[in-house]
Design goal:
The complex is a heterodimer of chains A (116) and B (114). Chain A has 116 residues and is mainly beta. Helix content of chain A is 0%, strand content 53%. In chain B, the strands form two sheets. In chain B, strands 2, 4, 5, 6, 9, 10 and 11 form a seven-stranded mixed beta sheet that branches. In chain B, strands 1-3-8-7 form a four-stranded antiparallel beta sheet, with no helix packed on it. The chains are: A mainly beta (116), B mainly beta (114).
Chain lengths: 116, 114
């Protein structure tokens, strides 16, 4: 079983629409969750981090976390063609003293295309 | 300033060569990471240094040898690589290796092994 799973995509939305990206994780001990954006040929860029249940908003981006359901999502409002990229969900396991301490585990990524 | 720099941007090497990748950050971060990323795949963790000590080695082959000379620098020494080692090598850093810290990536080194 994969540790972090993302909706398979690719996801295509029209300009101005809301893009919804989803991620589930298997480790109940996970404590922090991150969304990265990666343009083709570039490195991942951190766009959101979330640590507590609920919503966190930053501009057009909203991250949502539900630890009971082991689910984290990213909403992009008013999507723009420049948002077209691969979005990576990353989960930080934190088992103090364990071999996985501090390890960031990534999902496979969801390719988002915003068409004009 | 959330900047991690990596050199070189591109590297082509033969299987008998020895080369090094370099990473630098000036954010005062105390944890640094090496990741490997193949095309259309997510980054895979290779090594973690925390306070200049190797804290995680994800069973990486010995032909990859990390080094952390000081808190701002991280090197990855390469020797006798295989063509399947061709990938984007990413360096990242964070304030620490704990749970509630954000990790920032450098631009990467695109490695091709002939």
């Amino acid at each position: 079983q994969k540790e972090v799973e993302q909706n398979s995509g690719p996801l295509s939305v029209p300009e101005g629409a809301i893009a919804s990206l989803n991620c589930t994780y298997s480790d109940r001990g996970s404590q922090s969750f991150f969304w990265y954006r990666q343009y083709s040929g570039k490195s991942p860029e951190l766009i959101m981090s979330i640590y507590s249940n609920g919503d966190k908003e930053d501009g057009r981006f909203t991250a949502q976390l539900n630890k009971a359901s082991q689910y984290v999502s990213l909403l992009i409002r008013d999507s723009q063609p420049s948002d077209s990229a691969t979005y990576l969900c990353a989960v930080r396991q934190s088992v103090a003293g364990g071999t996985s301490y501090g390890k960031l585990t990534f999902g496979q990524g969801t390719i988002l295309t915003v068409h004009p | 300033d959330t900047e991690v720099t990596q050199t070189p941007k591109h590297l082509v090497m033969g299987m008998t060569n020895k080369k090094s990748l370099k990473c630098e950050q000036h954010m005062g971060h105390r944890a640094m990471y090496w990741y490997k990323q193949k095309a259309k795949k997510p980054p895979e963790l290779m090594f973690v240094y925390s306070y200049e000590k190797l804290s995680i080695n994800e069973s990486v082959p010995s032909r990859f040898s990390p080094e952390c000379p000081n808190s701002s620098l991280l090197n990855l020494h390469l020797h006798a690589l295989q063509p399947e080692d061709s990938a984007l090598y990413l360096c990242a850093s964070s304030q620490g290796a704990g749970a509630y810290v954000e990790q920032f990536f450098g631009p990467g080194t695109r490695l091709t092994v002939l």
